[in-house]
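Dock nicotinamide-adenine-dinucleotide; give full complex structure.
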Amino acid sequence: MNSKRIQVKSSAGNYQILCGANSIQNAAKEIATLGTFSTIHVLSSPNVWRALGNKLTRSLPKNTRSNLHLFNDAEQKKNMRTVETVCRSLTRARADRKSLLIAVGGGVVGDVAGYVAASYLRGVALVHIPTTLVAQVDSAIGGKTGVNLPEGKNLVGAFYPPRLVIIDPQLLRTLPQRQFRSGLAEVIKYGVIADKNLFAYLEKSMPRVLQRDKAALNYLIPRCAQIKATIVSRDERESNLREILNFGHTFGHALESITRYRRYQHGEAVAQGMIAVALLAHELGLSKADNASRIISLVQQIGPLPPWPRVAPEKLIAAMRSDKKAHAGNLRFVLSPRIGHAQSTDAVPMKALKTVLRFLLHSPSHDSAQLSDAAAIGKSHA
Ligand SMILES: NC(=O)c1ccc[n+]([C@@H]2O[C@H](COP(=O)([O-])OP(=O)(O)OC[C@H]3O[C@@H](n4cnc5c(N)ncnc54)[C@H](O)[C@@H]3O)[C@@H](O)[C@H]2O)c1
Ligand SMILES: [Zn+2]
């Protein structure tokens, strides 16, 4: 078997990611190496369990089936009420401090289960088995857990590292294509911020990737997991380096909130956000036209994205200012001066930002010709 082991450092205890095709088959053995647990509980959703329950029941430690806690993993249900429901279900099943929770699902299941694990009896052991592309390359790694409030996304949470993450790309087979394409935005992000070879591979291989070619996924997913693991190991609490993971997210979060989380999948909003920051970096004279057009062309290869909303630039800027990552309303952007590198800044002149937004928000359509033209607009500094 060609599974890879990736180490993640965390102040609350280091952990491993086991990543590779069929790594799920070793789940019971891997979990056994973590120690003995009084009871083992699987936290998942009816949707995920319908798709993968049979396969997982065969691979997980025996006796977990009777301790199955399923909750709705719609984004609107990622809230305190669901946390309470799951905690009460654990109490009824007599989960104690020596119990283990196994989160099986996408980012919503992982974030809820992670927060439950952090707070139930002040903390119980947790294993992540991510089942979406977003969860495999992003949310299951790095220890961020949390839920939404009516006032905003992810406003209540905790840093709570798992004891183990098992990433099996084979589990993505049942994932709807829109979810898969949305996850590819985060994959592109890793190429832009940290790995020009990964980026070049995607430029060359996107059609195969979109068909979920096994060899392609077996290269991409461990590579992205490794990049995320390296970044969060060096900056667990996002004081500095970890910020570059927000490439495309300042615009992306604003797009999601302004459209009330209805128009975009998260990755789709990030994809539009990456187009915007590619243009912004060029507008600022930080990157060459070629850099921007390569990023934009690759993002467009993922497939059609929901368009930008028709709102005034000021409205989107206001949404960016109220994002929890903006410090005292100061806008922060991650910009890529060249592919494979990124830096964050809060020194973006309003004029440049508005120029980019005016173009994106008022374009009647966003076909590739138009955007490539935009990237190549004869900027004097290019
Ligand atoms: N904690 C972090 O660091 C972090 C990072 C990124 C995103 N997130 C969070 O993750 C959430 C988004 O997660 P997501 O993109 O994984 O989507 P998701 O969890 O909403 O799952 C998307 C859909 O796919 C279904 N699904 C999941 N796995 C499947 C499978 N293998 N087969 C068939 N269907 C499957 C789910 O039931 C759901 O309907 C957001 O709430 C976001 O805030 C957290
Ligand atoms: Zn993201």
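Observed: The pocket of nicotinamide-adenine-dinucleotide (ligand 1) is lined by residues 45, 47-48, 51-52, 73, 75, 78, 105-109, 111, 131-132, 134-135, 138-139, 142, 144, 154, 171-172, 174-175, 179, 266 (CB under 6 Å).
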